[in-house]
Design a protein that fits this description.
heterodimer; A: mainly alpha; two-stranded antiparallel ribbon; 14 helices; 4 strands; 72% helix; B: alpha/beta; Rossmann fold; 6-stranded parallel sheet; 6-stranded mixed sheet; 13 helices; 46% helix; Peripla_BP_I (chain B)
Chain lengths: 343, 334
C-alpha cells in the first residue's frame, strides 16, 4: 500500500500528459463541431438559409450567457479542490443581488448630491454580503467540523429566507443605468461587460490558485487534510477563506444576473449551484478533493453553455436538453483520465 | 336616586359589554393557502386580501400560508386548517390534480372551500374564482397578431410544460393564430422558459442569433418571460419597438414596459381573484344575509354577476393594458 501520499499522486502521474491536460478542450471542440455539423445539415437540406451557430456573434453570446455560471463555477472549483461542496451559491447569489438592487434604485435624497447611491455602494453591498455568507459557512465547517454539504445546505435555506425578507418577497426593479452597465454594457462597443468580468475573475483566480501559497494550501487541504495539518498548515483558516471566495464570487454573479435581467427576484439563482458543480466536475475536478484546475472549469462551463445554446438553436425540446445534460456530466467523469480512483 | 344611578350604571355597563360583544362577534377565520410566495403576483394577492373591506372591518380574519411550491405541503396545510376548525378555506393550488384532496376533505368536514387563480380538476369545491387562461392566451396572441397585421414570424415562450397555465394559455395562443389566414404567420420557435425572466433572456438571445432579422413578434405566456425577451432584444442592440411583444399577468415591471411602449400586458386581476374569493367564502360562512363588500363587484358589474354568491364559477375579467390605461393601473401599485 505504501505511503498514503502515493495514492494522491500516482494515478494522475500515470495518465498520458497531453490527454489529461487537453482532453476537455478536445471534448469542447468536438461538441462545437457536432452542433455546427447538425446546423450545416439543416442548411444543406435547405431548411435554414445559413449556419448561424458558428458566427462570432453567437460565440460572444455563449460567453455572455455563461458569465453567471462561470463566475459561480470558479468559486466552486476552490471549494471542490478543498474536498468540500457549496450548495448555497444560488441562494447567496439571490441574496446579494437583492441587497445590491435595494441600493441601486432611485430613492430620494440618499446623498446630498444625488438621488441614488454611487454605483460602488450596491456593488460593495453585494460582494460583502456574499463574502459574509461564505465566511459564515466556512467558519461553521472549520470550527464545528460539520460536513460542508450540511453547513451549506443550511446556508442555502437561510440565504433564500433572507432574500425574501429584504422586500417581503417582492422583486426590485427600476435599477440605475450605472448599475445595469455591469450586465448590459459593452466594452469598446463589442465585448459585453459580463464577459470582461468573467475573464478577470478567471485570471485572478488562476493566479491565486496556481501562483500563491494559499493556492498550494487549498490543494494540500483537499488532498489530505490530516497531513496538511501535521505539516503546519492552518487548515481551518484555509477552509474559511475557500468559502469566502465562493461566497464573494456568488456576490459577483448576483451583480451580473441582477444587472442583466434588470430586476432582483427572490427566486433568482434557484438550482444554479448544480450547474456550477456540473461545470467543475465536467472540467475534471474530483469531489474527493485535491484535484482540479480552473482551465478545466472554464471549458466545463463553456461546454454547458454551448450545449444550451446549440440545443436551443437546433430546436431540441427542453426535456431532451435535461437528459442530454445529465448524460454528459456522467460521461465526462467516466472518460476523464485524471479522475482520482475511488478507494 | 341612588338606586336609579346604580341601575343606570348597570345598564350602561351592560350596553357597553354587549356592544363590545358585537364587535367581538366571532370573526370568520379564513385560511388562504397559496402555492408559494416568491412571485410578485402572490405578493399582490396577499396585499389585496388583507385590504378586503371585511378584513379591515374586523368581520373576517385571513391568514396566508406559503405552500412552498409543493402540492403535498398544501395538502398538509389544508388538513391543519380543517383540524383547527377554520371557517373557510381559500386555495390557490399548486397542482391541477395533486391538490384535489383539499376540496374533497374540506367538503367532508363541512368547510366551504374556494379555489382561486388556478384550477382544480374536481367539482367538489364551493366555487372557483379564476380568470380564464384560454381567454388570456387568446387576448395576448391576438394583440401581437393584430400589430403584425397577421403577417410575419412569431416565437412563443411557454410556461412550464404540462402545467395548466402553459396548456390553457397555449390553447388561447393557438386559437388566435388560427384566426389568421393559413400560412400567413409562421411560428418560428416555441419552447419553455419556466416563467423565468433569466431563462427567457437566454432563450430569446439564442433565437435572435439563429434567426437574425426574422422574428417579428414575441408571445410570452407570462410577463416575466416577455420582459426577458425585451432584455435580449436590447442586448442584441435591436430596437424593441420593431417587435410586437405581449405577456400576461400585469406585474409592475410589465406595466412600466407598457408605458414605455415596449409591450402589451394582459392584466390578471389579483385583487379581483382574492377579494372575490373572500366574498364568496364569507357568503358561505355567514349565510344569505351577507352582501359582498369588495369594490370589485361594482367595478366589473357588466361582466361579473354576484348571483348571491351561489355560482360555481366566477370568471374575473382580464384587462388588456395599453398606453391608454396603464397610468391608472400604475397608480394602484405602491
Amino acid at each position: 500500500m505504501g505511503h498514503p501520499l502515493m495514492h494522491i499522486t500516482q494515478p494522475a502521474a500515470k495518465a498520458p500528459i497531453s490527454l489529461r491536460k487537453y482532453g476537455i478542450v478536445f471534448a469542447f471542440l468536438g461538441l462545437c463541431v457536432l452542433v455546427s455539423a447538425l446546423c450545416q445539415l439543416k442548411v444543406v437540406q435547405g431548411a435554414w438559409p445559413e449556419n448561424t451557430f458558428l458566427t462570432v456573434n453567437n460565440l460572444m453570446l455563449i460567453l455572455h450567457q455563461i458569465s453567471v455560471n462561470g463566475v459561480l463555477a470558479v468559486g466552486m472549483t476552490f471549494v471542490v479542490i478543498s474536498a468540500g461542496i457549496d450548495l448555497s451559491v444560488g441562494s447567496v447569489l439571490a441574496f446579494s443581488g437583492m441587497m445590491a438592487a435595494s441600493m441601486a434604485t432611485r430613492s430620494v435624497g440618499v446623498t446630498p448630491w444625488s438621488d441614488t447611491y454611487p454605483v460602488i455602494f450596491p456593488i460593495i453591498a453585494a460582494l460583502g454580503v456574499g463574502a459574509l455568507c461564505g465566511g459564515l459557512s466556512g467558519w461553521i465547517i472549520a470550527r464545528f467540523r460539520i460536513q460542508a454539504f450540511i453547513a451549506t445546505l443550511g446556508m442555502l435555506l437561510a440565504a433564500r429566507g433572507f432574500t425574501m425578507s429584504v422586500t417581503g418577497g417582492n422583486p426590485i426593479s427600476g435599477l440605475s443605468p450605472d448599475f445595469r452597465w455591469f450586465g448590459t454594457g459593452k466594452l469598446f462597443e463589442v465585448i459585453p461587460v459580463p464577459v470582461v468580468i468573467l475573464a478577470l475573475v478567471f485570471l485572478l483566480a488562476w493566479v491565486i490558485l496556481n501562483k500563491t501559497v494559499f493556492g498550494r494550501y487549498v490543494y494540500a487541504v483537499g488532498g489530505n487534510e490530516k497531513s496538511a495539518r501535521t505539516s503546519g498548515i492552518n487548515t481551518g483558516a484555509i477552509l474559511i477563506w475557500v468559502y469566502v471566495v465562493a461566497g464573494f464570487l456568488a456576490g459577483v454573479a448576483g451583480v451580473i444576473l441582477t444587472a442583466k435581467t434588470g430586476s432582483a427576484q427572490t427566486s433568482a439563482g434557484s438550482s444554479y449551484e448544480l450547474d456550477a458543480i456540473a461545470a467543475v466536475v465536467i472540467g475534471g475536478a474530483s469531489l474527493a478533493g485535491g484535484v482540479g484546475r480552473l482551465t478545466g472549469t472554464f471549458f466545463g462551463a463553456l461546454i454547458i453553455g454551448v450545449m444550451n445554446n446549440g440545443l436551443d438553436i437546433l430546436g431540441v425540446q427542453s426535456f431532451y436538453q435535461l437528459i442530454i445534460k445529465g448524460g454528459l456530466i456522467v460521461v465526462a467523469v467516466i472518460l476523464d483520465p485524471s479522475r482520482k480512483q475511488a478507494g | 336616586m341612588k338606586k336609579l344611578l346604580l341601575t343606570a350604571c348597570a345598564a350602561a355597563a351592560l350596553l357597553s359589554a354587549s356592544a363590545a360583544m358585537a364587535a367581538d362577534a366571532p370573526k370568520a377565520r379564513i385560511a388562504v393557502l397559496m402555492y408559494g410566495n416568491k412571485a410578485e403576483f402572490v405578493q399582490l394577492m396577499e396585499r389585496y386580501g388583507k385590504e378586503h373591506p371585511a378584513v379591515k372591518a374586523g368581520i373576517a380574519e385571513v391568514t396566508f400560508y406559503d405552500g412552498r411550491y409543493d402540492a403535498a405541503v398544501q395538502n398538509d396545510q389544508a388538513q391543519m386548517a380543517i383540524n383547527t376548525k377554520q371557517d373557510a378555506i381559500v386555495v390557490n393550488p399548486m397542482d391541477y390534480e395533486a391538490n384535489i384532496d383539499i376540496a374533497t376533505n374540506a367538503k367532508m368536514a363541512g368547510i366551504p372551500v374556494v379555489v382561486t387563480n388556478a384550477r382544480l380538476n374536481t367539482d367538489e369545491m364551493t366555487a372557483e374564482v379564476v380568470s380564464d387562461d384560454v381567454l388570456g392566451g387568446y387576448l395576448e396572441a391576438k394583440d401581437v397578431l393584430t400589430k403584425l397585421g397577421c403577417k410575419g414570424n412569431v416565437v412563443i415562450i411557454e410556461g412550464p410544460k404540462g402545467g395548466s397555465g402553459e396548456i390553457q394559455r397555449g390553447q388561447g395562443n393557438e386559437k388566435a393564430l388560427a384566426e389568421c389566414p393559413a400560412g400567413a404567420v409562421k411560428v418560428l420557435e416555441r419552447k419553455t422558459a419556466n416563467w423565468s425572466r433569466a431563462e427567457a433572456l437566454d432563450l430569446m438571445q439564442n433565437w435572435l442569433s439563429k434567426h437574425p432579422g426574422k422574428i417579428n413578434g414575441v408571445i410570452g405566456q407570462n410577463d416575466e418571460m416577455a420582459l426577458g425577451a425585451i432584455e435580449a432584444i436590447k442586448a442584441a442592440d435591436l430596437n424593441v419597438k420593431d417587435f410586437a411583444i405581449a405577456g400576461i399577468d400585469g406585474v409592475t415591471d410589465a406595466l412600466h414596459a407598457v408605458k414605455a411602449g415596449e409591450m402589451t400586458s394582459i392584466l390578471q386581476d389579483a385583487r379581483g381573484q382574492i377579494q372575490g374569493s373572500i366574498d364568496v367564502a364569507l357568503r358561505a360562512v355567514k349565510g344569505p344575509d351577507y352582501k359582498p363588500m369588495s369594490p370589485i363587484w361594482e367595478q366589473y358589474k357588466a361582466d361579473l354577476a354576484w348571483a348571491d354568491g351561489q355560482s360555481k364559477r366566477y370568471d374575473i375579467p382580464w384587462t388588456v393594458v395599453t398606453t391608454a390605461n396603464v397610468d391608472e393601473l400604475l397608480k394602484d401599485r405602491n
